[in-house]
Amino acid sequence: MIRPETMTADELLRVGVRDRWYALCPSSQVSPGELVRLDRAGERLLLWRDGDGRIHVQDDRCPHRSAPLSQGVHMGDRVACNYHGVQVDPEGVVVSVPGSPGCALEGRRALRTYPAEEFGGAIVAWFGADPEAEPAPLTTPEPITGEEWESFLCYVEWDAPYAYSLDNLMDPMHGAFLHRASHSMAEGKREAAFQVRETDRGFLFEKTDQKGVNFDWSEWVDTGFPWVGLEIPYPPTAGPGGPFTIACTVTPISADRHAAFFWRCRKVSGWERDTWRFLYRTRLEARHWQVLEQDRVMLEDMPEDAHQGEGLYQHDLALVRLRRMLRGEAERQIAEAAERTRPAEKGRGRKAPGRVSV
């Protein structure tokens, strides 16, 4: 389990700051009756659905001997470890120890369980700096869940640090160069001036001398679920409806690999919704994958020390701002975690009655 108080800011940033909802995988990746193992944000996770289809996310380690529960048996309302048969319910409570009925392990909440939800075809979970604290409310992006919006989820896993994807998303200028052959980003100037504008949920990074022509702005949003919003004008051949909107979030898998979720959205309703869905599936989706492939090739070929010795300029204001914000949050979480654990250290690690170390 990630313990911020034992880490440096760099180490915590590599696995992702805590107290955030992170997207884990598409909902379709976890079928009824299956036990799925994932590595996300520095944790080994077990994902499974109960008999009602409700998703559950827990540490992939049996409370008995830390064997992987993902190699166990799905029992409908619980999971049984395949090593010694210990059974754990969705709340992390050990409900049965077949080899030693009535032992002290039974009835105890001994497995870390992550609050989990689903929206827009994805599974998300809360990674708290304090595992015992309540999660923040999950505020979903309007382009994904709004009634007047239609969206399609595009999921990728790239062999690059997740910070590289954040840089890419908060860099509107790369659209005029890397994606200059795209049907939706072929227009506009190759030079621009930018400004940072505060919002009530993050900040907006926008061109001051061009609007509605290319990839002209990005918005960083963090109300507990961090995501980036951007908008790209559509030509008439893309059919009726508003601009092409992308809502994206990224989740670290390891220090050099991450998962990215791109919801491709459009504000449409009625017959326009049906037209948009048809055009997207038959004509537009393949073009969007081409754009993502250009990003993937570039980011995966970046050197490991890409952030070292950069020659940044005015177009990189958003990158610098976001990096500083995340580092400040990492440092704050480390300090607060150290403060929480200090009384336990004074007590020489004594555990509270009725609890099991996890």
TrEMBL record:
| Pfam families linked to this entry | Rieske, VanA_C
Per UniProt, the keywords (alphabetical) are: 2Fe-2S, Dioxygenase, Iron, Iron-sulfur, Metal-binding, Oxidoreductase
Q: Name one GO molecular function term.
A: dioxygenase activity
Q: Which InterPro entries match?
A: Cholesterol_7-desaturase (IPR050584), Rieske_2Fe-2S (IPR017941), Rieske_2Fe-2S_sf (IPR036922), VanA_C_cat (IPR044043)
Q: List residues traversing the bilayer.
A: none
Where composition is biased (Basic residues), the residues are: 348-358
Q: Where is this region: Disordered?
A: 334-358
Recorded coiled-coil stretches: none
Rieske domain location, by residue? 22-125
Q: Does Chaperone appear among the keywords?
A: no
- Regions of biased composition (Basic and acidic residues) lie at 334-347
Query: Can you say what this protein is called?
Result: Aromatic ring-hydroxylating dioxygenase subunit alpha
